[in-house]
Fold:
Amino acid sequence: MTSLESPHRIAEQNLSLAQRHLDQGDTATAMKHAYRADEAAAKTDDWDLRRAVIQFLLNESGEGLGLVHLREDGSEEPLV
Structure:
């Protein structure tokens, strides 16, 4: 990953890698890539991409990962 890559591309690549590792049964590595995708997607204005990453995390975590929505004022709202 280079500094020239956009957050959107980084998020897409990591989400793809997360799915690939999950398909291979490597959940730990899949979740590492999913978290990287989430971090990058949060820097974009692509809500479909952000939703896809969050859905992946929620689906694979079973009961959720304690994800939060960051409000404009910096406060956090739990995602249910």
Notes: The longest helix spans residues 7-23. The chain has a mean pLDDT of 83. Residues 7 and 43 are 6 Å apart (CA to CA).
